[in-house]
Amino acid sequence: MQPEPAKIEHCDFNIALLNLSDVVPEMILIFFIGIVILGLRVGMLHIVSQMVQEKPTSIKSITSKFYELPRILVFYFIIGFLLFFPLIVGGLYNLLIFALMGGIMEVMTIFYVLVILAENQGIIGSMNKFYLLIRQNLFIILQFILIYLVLKNLPIGLLHLAVQPFLIVMSVLLYTKMRPDRK
């Protein structure tokens, strides 16, 4: 004697919608926390850039560049799409490749933010200056990306906390050396 197959009498799709509605506010919160962190990071780059140029600065100016976020986010989404879309469409789900692309995107975003802070142009003008900077200094930037990835991924515990400020200062110094209009 075989058991009867289970019969589904009622399918409740509201359960799936209910679970999604519980997660959406948390996703929005995480997105906005990421935006605030990006804004603080832009402020940190501004402060370090001012220090490298030996201009007066203070910690109060860490939130003074939040108005630059729309230009940075446009670039961030464009570069993210250009770097990650071929990997997803091509079926390459290798964690190492995603980590490499993430490191490249992080370094490119740092240099783009520095271009925005130094040039004070619109989105297209900033992207044009950024493209010229990359084209003129491609091998130096590729070397920096390799150094950045090696130092960023050191599994040495608390030393990782000391490496991040070093990498930020190093990227600002490198940018000031690469700028075509430097004095």
Give keywords.
single chain, mainly alpha
Concise overview:
With about 180 residues, the protein is an all-alpha fold.
Describe what you observe in this structure.
The structure is a single chain. By secondary structure, the protein is mostly helical. It has helices spanning 14-52, 69-90, 95-119, 123-136, 138-152, 159-178.
The total count of strands amounts to 0
Low-confidence stretches: 12-16
- The helix content, as a percent range, equals over 70%
The chain-level mean pLDDT equals 78
Sequence-ordered SSE layout with sheet pairings:
Layout lengths: L13 H39 L16 H22 L4 H25 L3 H14 L1 H15 L6 H20 L5
Helix pairs in contact: 1-3, 1-6, 2-3, 3-4, 3-5, 3-6, 5-6
